[in-house]
Design brief:
single chain; 4 helices; mainly alpha; about 0% strand
């Protein structure tokens, strides 16, 4: 398992990308850090987010869905909870 803390500041995003690419045993490409420069169309519900730089707008929104996430959390078991410090 590779835990990616997607709520860390953008200053740490490069390290997160390197860790994830390495964990997936893929070759790193500089385009991984320049996703906004990709000219291809994105046809998903998150298309608007893909066109924005990394930001803090979504931090804490998951709490709206917490009641439905309980079975998943129980199945995953103990995972460190750093969300309280990140919701600030």
């Amino acid at each position: 398992m590779c835990i990616v803390w997607n709520m860390k500041p953008w200053s740490q995003a490069e390290g997160q990308v390197f860790r994830l690419v390495d964990r997936l045993d893929l070759a790193f490409e500089p385009a991984c850090l320049r996703f906004l420069d990709n000219p291809r169309a994105v046809d998903t519900p998150s298309a608007q987010q893909v066109c924005e730089p990394v930001n803090r707008k979504g931090i804490g929104r998951w709490r709206n869905y917490e009641p439905w996430l309980t079975p998943l959390k129980e199945e995953l078991g103990s995972v460190p909870d750093h969300s309280a410090a990140l919701d600030r």
